[in-house]
Design goal:
The complex is a heterodimer of chains A (674) and B (168).
Chain A (H helix, E strand, L loop, with lengths): L6 H12 L8 H24 L4 H28 L4 H18 L4 H27 L2 H10 L2 H14 L5 H10 L8 H27 L4 H15 L3 E7 L8 E5 L2 E4 L5 E5 L8 E8 L4 E8 L7 E4 L1 E2 L1 E8 L10 E8 L2 E5 L9 E3 L4 E7 L5 E7 L2 E7 L7 E8 L14 E8 L10 E7 L2 E6 L5 E7 L4 E8 L3 E8 L4 E3 L1 E3 L10 E2 L5 E5 L13 E8 L5 H13 L5 E7 L7 H10 L6 E4 L20 E2 L11 H5 L7 E5 L4 E4 L6 H9 L2
Helix pairs in contact in A: 2-5, 3-4, 3-5, 3-7, 4-5, 4-7, 5-6, 5-7, 6-7, 7-9, 8-9, 9-10
Chain B lengths: L7 H20 L2 H21 L5 H23 L19 H18 L4 H12 L4 H8 L3 H21 L1
The chains are: A alpha+beta (674), B mainly alpha (168).
């Protein structure tokens, strides 16, 4: 049948656009970027100043000006270092110094600009430092130590001393070495000492608190966790495992491929998962006794200091496996997979620990520790047999009796079928040319479906087919659509070519078949004859509700060829769930402006109207014409075999080709230039 | 003499959000988006040194997109099989459809991967049109292309993406 996967792209685009976006870049990145940009502009400015004739004077004066500022600031800093690091004051003082100097210097205009930039930059940096301090942003302060102007370095050092974060030590030590001979003394040493003292105090405090943890309430632990985090900068999640009543539970947590055990009091620490590939992870928790469990979603942005995971009683299930004669079956294999929306998302994800199952020789089984609240698929297998049972979310503590489960043979004809048939040959096109990369979809045979592809020569080989059983096969190739047929082999080895034709091939180079349209939109009723002299790109089998993106593509094409004598027409397939009003509305929503028709009921098409089939190669299988009457008369007569069935009708009204996505534009150009 | 100094603070204020959105949307995480954000402005700075920039908005979105796509390409080259190994498990029924969330995420992951397989220009046109909602004309102007070329590139990009999403 028709494929419906063209929606995927639009779904994906929509999903991407709907993804939440964080507010903006982290402040440190933003600031760092700004700093780099302004530094570079400043650099540029200096270069352009340097190219003027006043270069020497300016330079000297700049140096002089800068030195003056430094000396004034340092002098004042010295005082403040001894009286204790009052960062606020330092900045005030520095500002005053700059302002005072700004008034004093009124010489060359270039120098003015340069000095202005210089002082503006310093001022900016000092302001940022103030903000960083207020925000406790140690990283940015350290960055300022490395990249800021000298005055900024000193201010940052003072603040860092105040904060007392050990991460600043390395940078400070470097600076203290570099500026060791500074006449102003060494302001960096003071900061280092201060930090060391602070860190030591912190460690003592932490050690004391952690001994208290075991007895104290979770609230106290939260604080410790938060502080530890700031100091270590480790992205760990801290939280508690508890039962529905809020009692702590000891157990294990698994998230992002890691498993950790909780403390006795249920508290745990687990590294955050790697968000590189996804923003949410599903984790699982299990109590130490194995009686309580839970699954949870961990998303980026969750509070990493306060994760509460509630575990509930697990469910269990029992049953008896029997064969078609109601005899108990021994030696079967039991698998549990998590199922969601008809899509297998995980298999036995919890591992042996959680989903313990036991099967007995009398055919009975007993599964403990089943996760609750999720769809599960229970698969019972034995060679040649397979039965699957889908379970909706189990309730906490539920004990489900599945009763007798009949194990079905996987093969349509049971175990008597011989699976020794093979068929091979070429998949060929209308010109008897082999098609490399064409596909065969086989099945379902029992529960199995599989797909094979032709090799570079266009040769296919199917083996292991059941003897004397009719097998459904669909031949697929780009531009040839779906070509279903059935095949039954009676001999072990068979050779046959599969010949497939593009849609409406029998109409090629003949006057295009008429359009059967129940109702036209965007135009008075039109016929193809009226359009003689123009090339027509016809899209048959559109569906605005299910595949609006196809029409968008056609619209894009029509914009591309707006200036050319190319007429676009789309015919909407008949569909039970879409009314004329729906289509009218969808046309407006999608802003379709070319002629658009709804296909007519198909009984107006009779076999008499169809052209004679062309001869086919010897010893070949040719999929029969498909019955498309449900989709409508036009779909049927144009033999639509896949979505986006396009047809090109030339200036003389002859149907020339049903182009593929690859040769569409080439053909349009060709027909336009004819 | 004439001193031309670009006020980057103003530019970052004005266009930072758009650059961030472009980077974040394509890369899907804070760290990579932050790298891309910074690289974008630094590149724009380099460009502005060489030539006079008429529209920073177009320039920045263009650079951000192409940087992000480069990064995606890099990401998927280095982790050929990683995206398969999504450790999907499941969830009890609290919260709004976590499984759906994860599925949506899987879909966006595939789109990102698919984008990394497009040609640079196709990827750019596609992102600018479909993610940044820019018109053909805006894109054409921003990239210095004919409007019709933009249409053709977009068409090709969609086709390739669709094929890629079908296969995976």
């Amino acid at each position: 049948m028709k494929k419906k996967n063209n929606n995927t792209l639009d779904d994906a685009v929509k999903a991407l656009k709907n993804e939440p976006i964080s507010e903006g870049p982290p402040k440190e990145i933003l600031d760092d970027t700004l700093r780099k940009l302004t530094d570079a502009s400043w650099e540029e400015l200096r270069k352009s100043v340097a190219t003027t004739e006043k270069i020497k004077v300016s330079k000297k004066l700049i140096q002089f000006g800068a030195a003056a500022v430094i000396i004034i600031v340092l002098g004042l800093l010295l005082i403040s270092v001894f009286t204790g690091p009052e960062g606020q004051e330092v900045i005030e003082v520095a500002r005053e110094a700059i302002e005072a100097k700004g008034v004093a210097e009124t010489t060359e205009p270039d120098l003015d600009i340069a000095t202005e930039r210089l002082s503006a930059r310093l001022q900016e940096e000092l302001e940022s430092i103030e903000e960083f301090f207020a925000a406790g942003d140690v990283g940015s302060l350290v960055a300022m130590l490395n990249e800021g102007m000298y005055e900024s370095k000193i201010a940052a050092a003072n603040y860092l001393g105040e904060i007392g974060d050990s991460r600043a030590i390395t940078a400070l030590e470097e600076l203290s070495l570099r500026y060791g001979d500074d006449e102003a003394g060494n302001p960096f040493v003071g900061a280092i000492e201060q930090i060391n003292a602070r860190v030591q105090a912190e460690e003592t405090k932490l050690a004391k608190q952690s001994t208290d943890i075991i007895q104290t309430q979770p609230a106290a632990q939260k604080e410790v966790s938060a502080e530890t985090r700031i100091i270590n900068e480790q992205k760990n999640i801290h939280g508690w495992l508890m039962d529905p009543a809020g009692n702590p539970v000891a157990g294990t947590i698994q998230l992002g491929g890691l498993t950790v055990a909780t403390e006795e009091d249920g508290s745990f620490t687990i590294p955050e998962p790697d968000y590189k590939e996804q923003n949410s992870f599903i984790g699982q928790a299990l109590s130490a006794q194995g009686d309580l469990g839970s699954f949870f979603v961990w998303s980026r942005g969750n509070d990493i200091n306060n994760a509460e995971i509630i575990v509930e009683p697990l469910a269990s299930a029992t049953g008896l496996v029997v064969d078609a004669n109601a005899e108990p079956v021994a030696d079967f294999e039991l698998k549990i997979s998590v199922f969601s929306k008809e899509r297998l998302t995980s298999q036995s994800a919890i591992g042996e620990e959680l989903w313990k199952s036991q099967s007995y020789t009398d055919g009975s089984f007993d599964i403990n520790s089943m996760p609750t609240g999720v769809g599960l698929r229970l698969t019972i297998e034995k060679p040649g047999h397979k039965t699957a049972i889908d379970l909706d979310g189990l309730a906490a503590g539920e004990n489900l009796d599945l009763g007798q489960i009949t194990l079905e043979p996987t093969e349509e004809r049971g175990q008597d079928t011989q699976w020794n048939c093979s068929i091979e040959g070429f998949i060929i096109n209308e010109n008897n040319e082999p098609l490399a990369g064409a596909k065969l979809d086989i099945g379902p045979i029992g529960e199995e479906r599989f797909t094979i592809e032709t090799d570079a020569e266009g040769w296919y080989k199917l083996t292991g087919l059941p003897k004397d059983v009719e097998v459904k096969i669909v031949a697929l190739a780009d531009g040839y659509g779906h070509n279903p047929f059935t095949y039954k082999c009676s001999e072990p080895n068979n050779i046959a070519d599969i010949q497939i034709f593009p849609p409406a091939y029998d109409w090629y180079d003949k006057p295009a078949p008429p359009l059967f349209v129940e109702k036209w939109f965007n135009t008075e009723p039109i016929t193809l004859e009226e359009l003689a002299g123009q090339v027509v790109l016809l899209h048959v089998g559109a569906n605005l509700k299910e595949r609006p993106e196809e029409i968008q593509e056609l619209k894009e094409l029509s914009e591309t060829y707006a200036e050319s004598p190319l007429v676009f027409i789309a015919i909407h397939e008949r569909a039970r769930d879409i009314t004329e009003d729906d289509i009218q509305q969808l046309i407006e929503e999608n802003d379709v402006n070319f002629p658009f028709g709804i296909d007519q009921q198909s009984d107006v098409v009779t076999d008499m109207m169809l052209p004679e089939s062309r001869p086919q190669g010897q010893n070949s299988v040719r999929p029969a014409r498909r019955d498309l009457r449900a989709a409508g008369a036009t779909c049927s007569i144009y033999e639509v075999k896949a979505n986006q069935a396009y047809y090109l009708i030339d200036k003389n009204g002859l149907l020339r080709i049903s182009p593929t996505q690859t040769n569409l534009e080439e053909w349009i150009e060709y027909l336009l230039n004819e | 003499m004439h001193l031309q100094v670009t006020d980057w603070r103003l530019i970052v204020d004005k266009h930072g959000r758009a650059v961030w959105e472009t980077a974040y949307r394509l890369l899907g995480n804070q760290a990579d988006a932050a790298d891309c954000f910074q690289e974008t402005f630094i590149s724009a700075l380099e460009v502005s040194k060489r030539q006079r920039v008429r529209s920073f908005s177009a320039l920045l979105v263009r650079i951000a997109t192409s940087r992000a796509i480069d990064q995606l390409r890099e990401r998927y080259r280095h982790s050929k099989h990683r995206e398969e190994a999504v450790d999907l498990i499941l969830v009890p029924s609290r919260g709004p459809g976590p499984i759906e969330q994860v599925q949506v995420q899987e879909l966006t992951g595939r789109l990102r991967k698919a984008l990394s397989h497009l040609g640079p220009q196709e990827a750019q046109v596609f992102c600018m049109h479909c993610l940044n909602d820019m018109s053909y004309r805006q894109i054409a102007k921003g990239l210095g292309l004919q409007t019709s070329t933009v249409g053709v590139l977009l068409h090709r990009a969609r086709r390739k993406l669709q094929d890629f999403l079908k296969v995976t």
